[in-house]
């Protein structure tokens, strides 16, 4: 496979670099012409009546259909036109079939992910969900799949370049391929199993108080301890073996009642934060039929609008960060290894065999076991992790076959009012999300739907014995007891992944919550009485870091030691805490934070430090004000003070910045390091092509600003690259839903040679917006291109 890829790359190199310009131009023209047609018509099987697709100047499809069935068909068709490779990798990732494409020549990441997905049974559960769908929901998934397959059958342009590089022809689309995305997101946004393993590993070498120092946001209570039987776990190996599904901390949302807006109707804002890449996850689309209209952000591969509005209702999501995953240590029956111990005696494992095809090498056979708690995390990567005679099992509502989450989203898309939103969300299983919603009648609401376990004992923060029954789940929090409210007296709901309940809530949602700074800042911005849509759009781009303002007075107590340090401290003393790309202060501050976290914690955590290493202003503030013992470097005979730690960390930060950006501090810029990582996952690994298709751009913001610009500080090469943030922004105007605003980070097309591959990048970075509105005439007058899908056999598809 590598040989095939290199042949193609060398051919591209020859055409673009080594031959005359006309040759290179001809190659680029040929590739551009492989882009899908946005005007004209196509005769396709499986359609009932003609569908008109008007692509506006940014290639956003406005789908006008006579029936919903035909509209979903058309959405599948345009998704396949623009994002087929994204769809292919999504379904193969969920099915545990990526190794069929890439083998292990690029490393074993694909095989390890395949093992995890097969072990968890993700695709099997997606198939079961599809079989249980009611007819109207199943019809949407069937029609969408038919639309994808219609494009696969009738397209005249070449398959996307990724398929050509890998010489791969996609299989027909199945409805379960669309369901699997929700399962992947449920796992990504419910990542408590990683936290459990990290905390348990920390407790093997640190005291409970020291662990609480590392996570000072934890509520007070009895110290967490690790069960004696579990001290033998190889937790380091367990953490390394779990699949990396990306960041799980994500999103801002707020909604204002009509009394808080200049329009007299609600305004709702939402910007979900996920990993950045090119193309971005999101795809804007609008569907208009006589009985149903919906506009907003879709996911290629999924027929429903994930975030958006219909004619009467708008909605937005953030992740709750509740604890809905538990790791159980199961004890194998010493008399029979095919059984495990339960409170009611030994029971047999449910066992199946999975065969993973690997390109370029023999198939791999995997034996998968499940217990009463869930799938056993058993694979070559996890062998020997649990103590001898034990295995590790994952309990998670999102792995149940009886998951009605797709139906919940379908009903949400069709909700007529706020009460119908609540009825739809009753069906949502996983992941738990904080949903804000509003209707044109003026009602606003907040609800955190999902199945959240109620435990017989324990708080879910470390793995627990599964054979005693002591920590078993005894049910789920009743729907009516989940966090929810409508029409708040303050006229607003705000959530930015902060805790949604207080200490008096009668159930345990979770023990660890992300930093509340973004929510606090949104609250500050909402202190005046009334806001316009434009005001709210501007608020989404806010760059003020409250942790910077809170932490700086503690940091600035360090006396300057030398001219460079004095200059840096003077700059920070005059800084307002805004993370803007053209200033040096954000760069100095965040690099100082990075080095300070290393100075305070690396010597005590040892091999635990790397997974812990992040910007942790609350932990740093806790150390500087309440736990100064962490300032001492235990690797030296002297006892260092916090002043010594602060000075050493700043000196180290300044030296590293100088090596990268020269000695002139006034020329340092946050944007030199803070660049949105908008690169293609496959093409970004191939020399020459990675530069041709790179959409990286300097950005404002930081990890704790409303305009989120999260970095991965443990990366030694690019510690402040912007790798996670708002790939989508939306603001909904309930007085005129056609006035709602949207923006995605890259462009609509997944074809790197398309003019719509990256045409939205600068507008996204700078806070621009788009509207998804207009009738056929208005769109055509504005230059929209018309593409018509015509039934090949009218009436035969019903």
UniProtKB/TrEMBL annotation:
Enzyme class of the recorded protein, top EC level: hydrolase
Pfam family name, one: Penicil_amidase
The answer to whether UniProt assigns keyword Signal to this entry is no
Q: Which SUPFAM superfamilies match?
A: N-terminal nucleophile aminohydrolases (Ntn hydrolases)
Q: Which Gene3D superfamilies match?
A: 1.10.1400.10, 2.30.120.10, Glutamine Phosphoribosylpyrophosphate, subunit 1, domain 1, Penicillin Amidohydrolase, domain 1
Alphabetically ordered keywords of this record: Hydrolase, Zymogen
The record's listing under InterPro entries reads:
Ntn_hydrolases_N (IPR029055), Pen/GL7ACA/AHL_acylase (IPR014395), Penicillin_amidase_A-knob (IPR043147), Penicillin_amidase_dom1 (IPR023343), Penicillin_amidase_N_B-knob (IPR043146), S45 (IPR002692)
What Enzyme Commission number(s) does the record list for this chain? Answer: 3.5.1.11
Q: GO molecular function, one example?
A: penicillin amidase activity
Q: Which family does it belong to?
A: Belongs to the peptidase S45 family.
This chain belongs to which protein, by name? Penicillin amidase
């Amino acid at each position: 496979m590598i040989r095939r890829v290199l042949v193609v790359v060398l051919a591209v190199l020859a055409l673009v670099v080594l031959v005359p310009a006309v040759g290179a131009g001809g190659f680029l023209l040929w590739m551009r012409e492989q882009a899908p047609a946005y005007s004209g018509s196509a005769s396709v099987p499986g359609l009932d009546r003609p569908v008109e697709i008007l692509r506006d100047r940014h290639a956003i499809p406005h789908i006008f259909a006579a029936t919903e069935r035909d509209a979903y068909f058309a959405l599948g068709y345009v998704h396949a036109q623009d994002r087929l490779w994204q769809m292919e990798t999504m379904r193969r990732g969920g099915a545990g079939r990526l190794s069929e494409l890439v083998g292990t020549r690029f490393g074993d990441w694909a095989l390890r992910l395949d093992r995890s997905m097969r072990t968890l049974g993700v695709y099997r559960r997606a198939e079961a969900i599809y079989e249980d769908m009611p007819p109207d929901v199943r019809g949407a998934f069937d029609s969408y799949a038919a639309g994808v397959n219609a494009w696969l059958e009738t397209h005249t342009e070449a398959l996307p370049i990724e398929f050509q590089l890998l010489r791969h022809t996609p299989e027909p689309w199945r409805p379960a391929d669309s369901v699997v995305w929700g399962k992947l997101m449920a796992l990504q946004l419910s990542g408590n199993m990683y936290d459990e393993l990290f905390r348990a590993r920390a407790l093997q070498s640190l005291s409970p108080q020291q662990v609480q120092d590392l996570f000072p946001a934890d509520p007070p209570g009895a110290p967490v301890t690790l069960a004696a039987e579990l001290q033998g776990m190889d937790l380091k190996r367990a953490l390394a073996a779990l699949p990396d599904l990306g960041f799980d901390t994500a999103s801002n949302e707020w909604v204002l009642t009509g009394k808080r807006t200049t329009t007299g109707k609600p305004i709702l804002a939402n910007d979900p934060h996920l990993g950045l890449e090119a193309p971005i996850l999101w795809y804007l689309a609008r569907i208009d039929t006589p009985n149903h209209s919906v506009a907003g952000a879709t996911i290629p591969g999924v027929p429903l609008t994930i975030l958006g509005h219909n004619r009467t209702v708008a909605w937005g999501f953030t992740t709750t960060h509740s604890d809905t995953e538990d790791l159980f240590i199961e004890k194998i029956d010493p008399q029979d290894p095919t059984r495990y111990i339960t409170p009611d005696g030994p029971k047999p494992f449910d066992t199946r065999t999975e065969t993973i095809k690997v390109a370029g090498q023999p198939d791999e056979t995997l034996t998968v076991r499940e217990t009463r708690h869930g799938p056993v995390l058993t694979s070559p990567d996890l062998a020997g992790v649990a103590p001898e005679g034990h295995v590790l099992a994952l309990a998670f509502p999102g792995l149940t076959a009886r998951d009605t989450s797709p139906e919940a989203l379908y009903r949400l898309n069709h909700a007529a009012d706020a009460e119908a939103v609540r009825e739809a969300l009753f069906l949502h299983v996983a992941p738990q999300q904080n949903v804000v919603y509003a209707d044109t009648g003026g009602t606003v609401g907040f609800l955190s739907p999902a199945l959240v376990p109620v435990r017989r004992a324990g708080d879910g923060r470390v793995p627990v014995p599964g054979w005693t029954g002591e920590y078993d789940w005894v049910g789920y929090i009743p729907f009516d007891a989940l966090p929810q409210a409508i029409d708040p007296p303050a006229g607003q709901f705000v959530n930015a992944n902060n805790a949604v309940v207080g200490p008096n809530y009668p159930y345990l949602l979770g023990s660890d919550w992300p930093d509340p700074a973004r929510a606090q800042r949104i609250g500050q911005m909402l202190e005046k009485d009334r806001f316009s849509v434009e005001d709210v759009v501007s608020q989404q781009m806010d760059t003020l870091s409250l942790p910077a303002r809170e932490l700086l007075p503690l940091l600035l107590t360090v006396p300057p030691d030398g001219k460079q340090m004095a200059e840096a401290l003077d700059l920070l003393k005059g800084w307002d805490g805004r993370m803007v790309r053209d200033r040096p202060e954000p760069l100095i501050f965040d690099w100082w934070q990075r080095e300070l976290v290393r100075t305070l914690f690396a010597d005590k955590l040892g091999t635990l430090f790397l997974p812990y290493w992040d910007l942790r202003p609350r932990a740093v503030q806790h150390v500087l004000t309440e736990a100064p013992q962490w300032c001492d470097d235990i690797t030296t005979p002297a006892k260092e003070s916090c002043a010594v730690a602060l000075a050493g960390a700043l000196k180290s930060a300044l030296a590293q910045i100088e090596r990268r950006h020269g000695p002139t501090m006034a020329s340092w810029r946050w944007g030199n390091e803070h660049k949105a990582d908008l690169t293609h996952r496959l093409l970004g690994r191939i020399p020459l092509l990675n530069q041709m298709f790179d959409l990286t751009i300097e950005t404002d913001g930081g990890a704790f600003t409303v305009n989120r610009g999260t970095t991965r500080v443990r990366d030694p090469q690019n510690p402040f690259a912007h790798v996670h943030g708002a790939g989508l922004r939306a603001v909904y105007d309930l007085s005129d839903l056609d006035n709602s605003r949207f923006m995605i980070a890259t462009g609509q097309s997944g074809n790197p040679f398309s003019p719509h591959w990256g045409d939205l990048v600068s507008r996204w970075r700078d806070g621009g917006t788009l509207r998804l509105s207009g009738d056929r005439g208005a769109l055509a007058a504005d230059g929209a291109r018309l593409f018509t899908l015509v039934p090949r056999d009218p009436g035969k598809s019903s």
